[in-house]
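Anyone? Bumping this.
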Amino acid sequence: MNQNVFDDPRITAVGLLVEAHAGLSARFAAQFEEHGLSPVEFEVLTRLARSPGNQLRMTDLAAQTSLSTSGVTRVVDRMERDGLLCRRACPSDRRSSYAVVTTAGLQRLDQTLPGHLRIIEQWFTGQLEPEELRAVLDGLRRVRDAVHPGATAGSTEPVPEEDARS
Amino acid sequence: MNQNVFDDPRITAVGLLVEAHAGLSARFAAQFEEHGLSPVEFEVLTRLARSPGNQLRMTDLAAQTSLSTSGVTRVVDRMERDGLLCRRACPSDRRSSYAVVTTAGLQRLDQTLPGHLRIIEQWFTGQLEPEELRAVLDGLRRVRDAVHPGATAGSTEPVPEEDARS
DNA sequence: CGAGGAATATTGCCATGGCTATAGTTGCTC
DNA sequence: GAGCAACTATAGCCATGGCAATATTCCTCG
């Protein structure tokens, strides 16, 4: 068996990306937990808080998170039970319902965000010189745009079908 | 509520990292599935295949993957049932047992790896100029070393305790 | 208008995996 | 050697979340 396949620079590159991500996620999760939030709940809270009216239809919330629509149903169940958000019927479409952040939810987010930003700075952005950071982010943006169809509003271009990198 | 918190460059930076990782993971998972593997199973297979004797104690396997020891027990259960690996009693310590990759497991990995490498190149490394890629990897290495204690054998230095909290 | 198909949220069923308790083993200390 | 703490793998119980089925509601086309 070809042992040195694992020394392939591509494997190494992915390993770095995965481990950097995993390490940061673990730090985030620990801090979220201090504020009684799971990573998914924090994600939901931020997505709602940055949406007009602090609300989003269940479907749209699912599209903006890592969850399926049924997953969103359940997270919203839990968070509604905890008073972080509530459901609101959509007046124009009786199939839809909104998830709306409550005041308590916004407060919780406010409590969590400063520490979150501190962690990012301490363990990610602050570890790099400004121009290094810019280089990393430029690279990640290119990867993201290639591999994550429809991630940003800006990239409406079709997903590149081949390895073409202009 | 402070809406423009979400325009904070730190939030943006993490968002890029997370989405690049998520996009790549999704592509990987799709290709693994073509070969009848889950992401965790692929991880286990590679960890074992790159270990001396194609084997690892359950505990060590857990330490090298994203799983707890009980998680490893179950993945190994499934993979043993599928014939990808088998358990072997440790002769020197009757508490321990090894997970050993079978020939079928190595074959499965051989079938999967070329496509995996192609995906990495097509959607990650190949999207960047060589010097861009090097810059990204250098940055990720720094982040990884900071945030992921004990990730590599090379970085024995203690985790920076530069702290600022509480 | 009415029928059929698409969209929306939810629920049932299931796989995955973490935490904790447990049983077996080892090694250290007295 | 006996006792005890640490280690190792596993099983029980539970939370999370995906997929598919389901019930509503909406929309389009005839």
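Late reply, but here is one note on the structure posted above: Residues 38, 40, 67-68, 70-71, 74-75, 93-96 of chain A lie near DNA strand D (CB under 10 Å from a C1').
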